[in-house]
Design the sequence.
């Protein structure tokens, strides 16, 4: 008679992973003091996690793994954790202060009793490893749920290739106002851990900095255009404004604007063809 195996349950949940930056270095400098501080900080974290309807799944070493039914509550809890811990032990020099790194992911997990496993947990753990001391990194699915619900900014860091996960993971840094980040450190305190860096030209999104961010994105986009197209676009905008303030009962700006854009596009293409021919001739 075949043996029936229990099927693992799965669920969609928000996973928060946190650990201490430079934990080994802190332990080598002052083991009893570091353990006492870790216990004190974990108590503060546990209180905040419970307040936001979260559940601590596991703790080992200096790590904390928690899950939340609400994505918004998970990110809000992480923000409050970093804000609360940043005020602890202000008398200590920066090198001896305990800083947590936090990663958050929304994903499918396998449930085994009170434990959870799978890519949903792995991605949160990898984001935590790339976070700055005192910082928070979130995945793309988390950003999609919270970017218009929380009054904080988000910096897009682009797709990150993380260990044991096939597809690149879109990541965002939570911009905590008033928080000063230190340099990322590895667990042994000897080498800097890989730091997530913003991609060239990647936009920075923020709820509070909305209008300034949009201006910056447009400026960067214009700067990347060929000079002729950039000039034609700027002149077209001025023509539109003149038409707007002189009254839109007669719309005329589009005729010169389209003509200039067409000429600028053809001129740019012509220059590119000539440049390619010269390069081919030299080769």
Sequence:
């Amino acid at each position: 008679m075949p043996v029936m195996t229990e099927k693992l349950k799965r669920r969609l949940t928000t996973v928060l992973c946190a650990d201490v930056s430079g934990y080994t270095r802190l332990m080598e400098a002052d083991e009893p003091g570091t353990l006492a501080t870790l216990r004190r900080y974990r108590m503060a974290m546990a209180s905040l996690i419970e307040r936001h309807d979260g559940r601590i799944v596991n703790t080992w070493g200096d790590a904390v793994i928690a899950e939340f039914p609400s994505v918004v509550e998970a990110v809000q809890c992480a923000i409050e954790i970093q804000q609360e811990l940043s005020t602890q032990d202000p008398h200590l020099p920066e090198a001896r202060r305990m800083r947590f790194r936090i990663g958050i992911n929304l994903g499918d997990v396998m449930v085994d009793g009170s434990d959870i496993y799978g890519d949903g947990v792995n991605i949160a753990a990898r984001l935590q490893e790339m976070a700055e001391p005192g910082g928070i990194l979130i995945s793309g699915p988390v950003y999609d749920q919270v970017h218009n619900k929380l009054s904080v900014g988000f910096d897009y860091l682009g797709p990150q290739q993380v260990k044991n996960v096939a597809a690149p993971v879109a990541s965002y840094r939570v911009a905590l106002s008033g928080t000063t980040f230190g340099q990322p450190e590895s667990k042994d305190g000897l080498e800097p851990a890989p730091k997530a860096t913003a991609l060239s030209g990647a936009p920075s999104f923020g709820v509070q900095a909305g209008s300034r961010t949009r201006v910056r994105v447009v400026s960067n986009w214009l700067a990347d255009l060929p000079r002729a197209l950039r000039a034609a676009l700027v002149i077209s905008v001025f023509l539109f404004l003149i038409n707007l303030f002189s009254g839109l009962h007669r719309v005329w700006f589009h005729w010169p604007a389209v003509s200039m854009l067409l000429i600028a596009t053809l001129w740019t293409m012509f220059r590119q063809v000539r440049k390619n021919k010269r390069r081919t001739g030299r080769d």
